[in-house]
Predict the 3D structure of the following.
Amino acid sequence: MQREAYFDNAKLLFIFLVVFGHLIQPLKESIELVNVLYQWIYLFHMPVFILISGFFAKGASNKGYLIKLFKRILVPYFIFQILYTIYFLGIGKNDWDTSLYDHSGGDYGSC
């Protein structure tokens, strides 16, 4: 398979957005425009980057690839989410402090 400059450039853009998002993170609490920009970047940049990278994954066209991917990624994810929930309920936290698109909130650290 030959490399496509379009996809390489798209991956570069999304890698830049990851770094830029981390750079502006300390300013998001004090500057509203930076907070909006930060939320906008983190709303989509990683899912798109993963989608573009996964497009070139070996074996993606093989039969049973999605089921194997589900078993290898989503099953452990759900198991650990259940364990995290039990742990946080056990230490007295009644709910998660973060929203679905803000990875840096709460007492649980940042990415």
User: Anything to note?
Assistant: The chain has three helices and no strands. Residues 46 and 81 are 20 Å apart (CA to CA).
